[in-house]
Amino acid sequence: MGKNPLEKSIHISIIVPVYNSADFLHQCVDSILRQTYREFELLLINDGSSDDSLKIMNSFAEQDSRIQVIDKVKNSGVSDTRNIGISLAKGKTICFIDSDDWVEKNYLQVFIDNYVSSDILLLQNVIRDKPRNLHYKTYNLQNDFTELFLRNNLLYFGGPCGKFFEREIITKNNITFNSEVSYGEDLIFFLEYIKQIQAINIINAALYHYEFTENSLSRTKHSFDSLFILHSAIADFIFFHHQQTGKKIKKYIYQVDWDIIEACIDQGIIGKKLNKEDSYICMNKIKATIDKNHFLYSGYYRKVLFLLLKTKQYQLLLQLKKRLNK
Fold it and tell me: Are 54 and 130 in contact (CB under 8 A)?
């Protein structure tokens, strides 16, 4: 076998944003420190926690020199916290672990064993209640674009966890988590990142355990602006890959985009109880971004929504949505 491009001296930066995670932090950090691959730095970033999280982080740092604790006194959200981690990271590669999750002891080693090139994103399965249904192989983004997204439902697997990123690609292309977005910021980051690489290797491993907690399950009705930014990012992604997008993949991507558009209406307008004037301003923004493909690649119900948007029948559309949401 050839020499692995990741020498031991070129280590991994593990970024863990922490907010009020005292009940889960021991399990998370212990699982990282038990890794069989040991050449890493661990950045624990406190996002203004009001519980004992910072105390626990400092106690771990006293025991292991690979740990660096960064204390943000004021809470500013997970995106800003991850961005601080990226700016401080020294490793050639970066992986993100949420503070209420944990990983099995060979999690990093599997990434190392499968590392071939900096322009191939490594992706492992993530266990929620069970592993997702992924198809394990290396997908070239030019030739296997449709298969990659359709077989693996990849637009719903855009979170940063379970992935092995190149720090230089992130910093060179100024890829960040959008701190203005409260929903979908991780998918936007993922879409921007894969514009800069050649392939994605989905590894046959499921070593990351995602824990459902109050922190990880948001019941918040997200703002229209956050949802609209996500909708715009998907539109940009479609345009960037328009040459590879055949009929099947277009249908899939436009269905995902319709999910976001409906969330804009259900959560961002109806859920936030916007007044008539603000509701119509938001509707006009949506109307300006949809095209004939949103009509072509949709079922009967969404075709009706499309026509109501295009003809500015906003009051009728909102009444229809409210009835269906009951």
Answer: no
Only one residue has tokens 């922190």, namely 215
Task: Decide: 139 and 199 in contact? Cβ < 8 Å.
Answer: yes
Quick one: average pLDDT of 41-59? 97
Please enumerate in sequence order all residues whose Cβ is within 8 A of that of 57, keeping only pairs 6 or more positions apart, or say none: 18, 25, 29, 44, 46, 67, 69
What is the model's pTM?
Answer: 0.87
- Enter the tokens of residue 42: 């661990």
Residue range 155-173, pLDDT digits in tens: 878 889 999 999 999 999 9
Gap between the Cα atoms of 57 and 43, Å rounded: 10
The overall average pLDDT reported for the chain is: 89
Residue 219 tokens read as 């019941």
The residue with tokens 């855009």 is: 158
Domains and CATH numbers, the chain: 12-209 (3.90.550.10), 224-325 (no CATH)
Selection from 249, 267, 319, 261 nearest residue 290 by Cα: 261
CB 6 within 8 A of CB 36: no
Phi, psi at 148, each rounded to 5°: -55, -50
Judging by beta carbons within 10 Å of its beta carbon (0-12, 13-18, 19+), is residue 184 exposed, middle or buried? buried
Distance CA 22, CA 25 (A): 5
Contact of 194 with 240, CB cutoff 8 Å: no
Query: pLDDT by residue (tens digit) across 249-292?
Result: 888 888 889 998 998 999 889 988 899 999 999 999 999 989 89
Contact between 286 and 266 (Cβ < 8 Å): no
Residue 278: count of CB within 10 angstroms of its CB = 13
Q: In the chain, count H helices and then E strands.
A: 13, 9
71-86 residues labelled b (16+ CB within 10 A) or e (exposed): ebeeeebbbbbbbbbb
